[in-house]
Structure formats: structure tokens, C-alpha cells
TrEMBL record:
Source lineage: Bacteria, Pseudomonadati, Pseudomonadota, Gammaproteobacteria, Thiohalospirales
Entry protein name: Zinc transport system ATP-binding protein
Domain of life: Bacteria
Keyword list, A-Z: ATP-binding, Nucleotide-binding, Transport
InterPro entries per record: AAA+_ATPase, ABC_transporter-like_ATP-bd, Metal_Ion_Import_ABC, P-loop_NTPase
Keyword Membrane: no
GO molecular function: ATP binding; ATP hydrolysis activity
Amino acid sequence: MAEAAGSPLIRVSGLTVRYGAVTALDHVDLAITPGMFLAVLGPNGSGKTTLFRCLLGLAEYEGRVESRARRIGYVPQIKNFDRSFPGRSVEVVISGIVGAWPGPLALRRHRERACAALAEVGADAFADRPLHALSGGQLQRVYLARALVHGPDLLMLDEPAAGVDRAGEADLYECLEGYQARNPELAVAMITHDWEVARHHADTSLLLDHSVLAFGPSAEVLTEDTLRRAFGHVGHHHDLGVTS
């Protein structure tokens, strides 16, 4: 894991989002610095996706979101992806370059660049494979290549392991950490429900339940006490081996 350094890429101050009488986020403060691997955790409906939408400029909010990131890559969840879609891996990546599904001219012009991005995440062997023939882990790598093709300063992932088996999940995190090691200024922000994954892979964690419950080094944030405050229980299969 890369060590966070430098002035923030993203600084969030007093971020508040209301939907009528419902407050989705309440005066959230945080900073994302170059090299940071941030895990965002919280119960369902706690505002995690709303926070990401604000960082991506897709939601209205009160407060401030200051960004000096020139490029942001985003990897959505794949569990609801329609596998009958008639496309190939390389076309998905090229769509991230041209902002639309590529025609023959775009395929010729951008194929080399797209294949290089697929190679970065170990997916070049199935560049021409139909999407319906990919496993969940392979498909997630394709979307990761699409997000990385522009060389972003910040990579945002929404539950990247959803719909991926355990072997694919391990490969995905190994791929992420390898890419960040080769690009140490890259910041990664990831929504996850798995605090074991967060504690193992993310140097920094944000525990969110509409407002910030805890934010800081993962080993300090993801304690049994703070997890009980957020989730109400810590199951035996998620035992962190720490005491509050």
C-alpha cells in the first residue's frame, strides 16, 4: 500500500445532502491525499454512495468539495450488469476514451491504448472476448482498465468485489495494490461492506452513518467498538482480533 503524502487531492468540508426531510449526509469532513487507499464503510443507507456522487459532481449539496484532481476514474458495481450486451472487453475500455460506444474508426485509433490499459490489470488476454463470456472477476478488471485508461489522479470504486467470487476478489485487490505501487501518487477510494478487506488493504478508513463516526488509519478506525457503533454487532466471521 502506498503511503499518503502531500496536500489533499480532495477536501470535503461540512458536506450536507438533504432529500426533502431526509438528511443523507450531515456535515461530513474528510480529505483524500495522493497515495492514500481509503475504504468507505457504513450500514446500508448510510450515505456512502451519496458521498461518491458528490465527489463525482453528480449530486447537489451544501458545504464544500474542493478538488485538484485532474482526472478521476470510476468503477461501478457489476453485479447488475446485463451480460447479454453484445460487446467485447476492448470496446468497453475504448468507450472510456471516446465517451461513447466505439465505431470501427475509434476501434482502430484507440485499440493500442485500450490494450495497454487491459495489460496493466492483467486482462489483455481477453481483450476480444465477448462480455457474456467473462467471469465476474474478469469483467471487473475490464471496468478497472476503463477507469485507468486516462491515468487518473483518483480512482473511485463502488463495492468492487460485489458479484465476484473469492478467488476473483483476491486477484482484484492484488491488481489494485500492484497498480498503485507502480503509480504511487494515485489515490484510491473504495466503498465496501467488508471491514476485513478494508483493514487488510486500505491504509485509511472512513466509517460513515450519515455523519462521520470515525476517520483515520484503518487499524485505529476499524476497532470492535467503532464497528459495533456503526453496525450494531460484529459477527464471529468478521472478528478482527482487536479489543476496544
